[in-house]
Amino acid sequence: MGSHYPIRPFETLEEFKECVRFQEETWGDGFSERVAVAILKVSERLGGIAAGAFDDDGTMAGFVFGMTGLQAGEVIHWSDMLAVRPGLQDTGLGARLKAYQRDTLLAMGITRVHWTFDPLESKNAHLNLNKLGAVAGEYVQDMYGQTDSPLHRGIGTDRFVPTWTLDSERVTTRLVEGRTGPEAGADEGATRVFEVKSEGDLELPGEPDLSLEGSRLLVPIPTSIQMIKDVSLDAAVRWRRVTRSALSTYVERGYEARELYRRPLGSEYLLCR
Questions:
Q1: Is 70 exceeded by the pLDDT of residue 100?
Q2: What is the arithmetic mean of pLDDT over 77-103?
Q3: Domains recognised in the chain with CATH numbers
Q4: Any residues with CB less than 8 A from the CB of 53 and at least 6 apart, and which?
């Protein structure tokens, strides 16, 4: 289904404006972190990407936006936003937008991309690690401070900062050849940092063991942090506290999140050192 939507750069002022409206539809009316038309247009002119997927009547079905700049003398790309209409999520359109981004950047000679995602959002983790082939070796606590987005309000804005190496074998295998992760068997023998128990309709984390030294660790996350937040904000805050402690500690010790395994009770990151 997601393959029926042509992807191309924004061309008209109205398309740039539609992108701003799309941001508010995705992250909430009055979303204060939305990217304005002027920034979208300037970024595109200076080597960034502002492109959308459109249906037959020109309606935007999704978009990707990122900026290009220098980091320690290397030209890199910061992929700031990716969004797909709710009815088209899980159709592969998000991966197609990222593939378009990859092809465009490789043609410019750019091979390294970063962005952020909430470690508690399992769908985003599955896309970023398993489908795209990124790895996450940086964890930032409250990267954006408090937000008015209904998706993240009340639980902070902790973020993974993944690295997407566009010309790597891992990315080629997963995104281009379609051999989606997680790698079978890579989690065998890995040690779980904390256990998860079910209490009524809620999945709740135990306390993390921060003294582990194995080469492979498993860190659980909930099936849907949004569903948990709707039922109990206290439970969602507990998930943030426990995963922040586990992920920030082990990432600081040199581990990186490489896979996401979906389990009967939630999902689990595989951390490797």
A1: yes
A2: 93
A3: 2-176 (3.40.630.30), 191-272 (no CATH)
A4: 2, 5, 6, 7, 60, 61, 62, 63, 84, 93, 96, 97
